[in-house]
Specification:
This protein is mainly alpha-helical and 69 residues long. It is 81% helix and 0% strand. It is built from three helices and no strands. The chain has helices at residues 2-32, 36-49, 53-63.
Length: 69
Amino acid sequence: MTQKIMAETSKVNVGLIRYIGARSCVIKAMLDELDDAQVERIKARSEAIAGNEEVKGYVREFFRPSDEG
């Protein structure tokens, strides 16, 4: 029973991670279409909305340039 629960949970977690990854790709593509000032305003608002420092850290990471461009 434990193995079945773990197997089902991992399917959900992997699916959720892929879903979040897909949303991130769409958002990044949308941000690429904006000018730098707009992106900076969105970044600042995102950090202000974040509920705690851990979430703010993820917001900062999201806006950090990637190695892939």
